[in-house]
Design goal:
Layout (H helix, E strand, L loop, with lengths): L3 E6 L2 E6 L7 E2 L2 E2 L34 H59 L2 H11 L33
Antiparallel strand pairs: 1-2, 3-4
Length: about 170
Amino acid sequence: MADVSGKRVGDEYRQTTYVNNANGIDGNTARRLNAVPERRERDAPGQRPQKRPQRQPARMTGIDGVSFLFMMCALCVVAFVTFSYIHAQNSIRSMKKEVVALQAEVEEQQEKNDTEYNKILAGVDLADIYKYATEKLHMVMADGNKVYKYKNKKSDMVKQYSDIPESGD
């Protein structure tokens, strides 16, 4: 039985003829009985032969002068903005620290003022003042109808004609 198949390899056609007979020839190759295939030796023990050639890295084309100048200007602007931002953050942080210190100082001064005011109020006894004014100075408590209001029609300035005598107490 002969079979012819046409398979295209490149521009040529290969024809394979299959013949079946008793000598062991089948097709266009003769087989050996109990044949051991030959061993292949490798070049290096850990390397396999490469099937594809290695690709060369693509080379970058040069940058023209205008693009380089634009890129440097953009880099300078970014660096300036970054340093300005960092400077602003530092100044804000230092101002916050100053504000906290000043607030603590204000609270401390208010506390001192409150304690001094309370000491002054504790030292002043209104009953003693009333007693001193009525007994020693012979003052009398004014009623609502005994208060006289004076209007100066000329001016708000008061003329002093002589020195005020000092009290002998």
